[in-house]
Amino acid sequence: MGDSIAHEHDDRQTDDDEPASTREMHTDESKCADAAPTVAGGRGQAARPPLIIHFHIPKNGGVTISRLFKMKLGFWPPSHLLHHSTVLGFYSIHLSERIPKIQSLSERAKRRIRFVEGHAGFGLHEFLPQPSTYITMLRDPIDRAVSSYFYQRQEGHIPQDVSFEQWIARDDPTRIWFSDNPQVRYLAGEKGRIVDVPHGTCTEAMLELAKQRLHDHFALVGILEQFDASMILLRRLMGWRSCYYGRSNVTRQRKRVSEVPDATLGLIREHNELDLELYRFAKTRFQERIDAEGPSFQAELRQFQVRMEDVGGRLSRLYRILGIGRPLRRRLARTTEQIRHPKRRLDEFDEPQP
User: Fold this and answer.
1) Is the full-model pTM beyond 0.85?
2) Number of neighbours of residue 82 by Cβ within 10 angstroms
């Protein structure tokens, strides 16, 4: 595929390169990628890249990433159009049903799968049929908590009269929207399950496991607050010509961190000490990754940001139009799942996706 337009970015704060080379990715324990692999995905490349697992932690800009991959992989090469749903890992159905469906495919059909996503804990690669690698985005835990609270109120996940202080101190009944150390919880999960120990009982061992997995299994760990730089790294990793995006799915009427009382910010820090340390660790590694890209990286970043001043606004308007009715579709999908599977918890493996 040539220059691509993209894509939805939930609550963004605030990339033309040579195709990357491909190498096989594996570890001792599984078919998952090793540390910082390179993935080829551009035109004219004979070597087959690994299956991409998008490790989608809620409110970390993940919808942008997913739509970008769906546009890129769903339309190029043209043969993917004939097997669109398979190539993209049957993304339109609940993840707990996707995995058995993938496992039931013929070997030939399994080889067509290029992308799998979901709100799930670590370990999806154990259920997939071919070598794979993870990508994800991490976010400043303070800002993420503020965004999550107002987003859940906006979407009806929590009552309007639940205060921030009540929300951050509670256990999450859905096992999706944890308010204490959620990024560590996702990364320390097993076999797709998010760690759901009681609120306030996440451990240093979980933090160290999360760090080790970022190092060992992720081809890219982007930083939401440096989203444009993350897009350049992703573009180079995949061998794409571009990855412009449009801002959408923004949490409406949320407060900025600067508008949140100091006492509340202190409460967020208290409940997210492990996530704060994980974020510092990921930011250090992210900067090391950028430094290793050489002097051309900053020039590309400046060029991309200039272009985004024009393209980004137009894409944002386009996706606002396309997004009309999305909240209703999402609620209908959630209701349908609850009717079809009344005894299933939402964390098996993720919440319904419209």
Assistant:
1) no
2) 9
Sheet holding 218-223, edge to edge: 115-118, 51-55, 132-138, 218-223
User: What is the average pLDDT across 4-20?
Assistant: 32
Evaluate if residue 82 carries a pLDDT over 60: yes
Show the tokens assigned to 328: 């209703």
Question: How many Cβ atoms sit within 10 Å of the Cβ of residue 86?
Answer: 18
Instruction: List the beta bridge partners of residue 32.
Output: 132
- For residue 182, what are its two tokens? 């959620």
d(CA 291, CA 302): 15
Tell me which amino acid residue 35 is.
Answer: A
Residue 15 has pLDDT above 60, yes or no: no
Per-residue pLDDT band for 32 (boundaries 50, 70, 90) equals: low
Fold of 51-340: Rossmann fold (3.40.50)
Q: Among the ranges 24-28, 105-109, 136-140, which has the highest mean pLDDT value?
A: 136-140
- The closest of 112, 135, 111, 131 to 122, measured between CA atoms, is 135
For the CA atoms of the chain, what is the radius of gyration? 19
pLDDT tens per residue across span 302-353: 999 998 888 766 666 665 666 555 555 455 555 655 565 555 544 444 443 3
Could you tell me if residue 260 is left (phi over 0), alpha (psi between -120 and 50 degrees) or otherwise beta? Answer: beta
Is residue 170's pLDDT more than 90? Answer: no
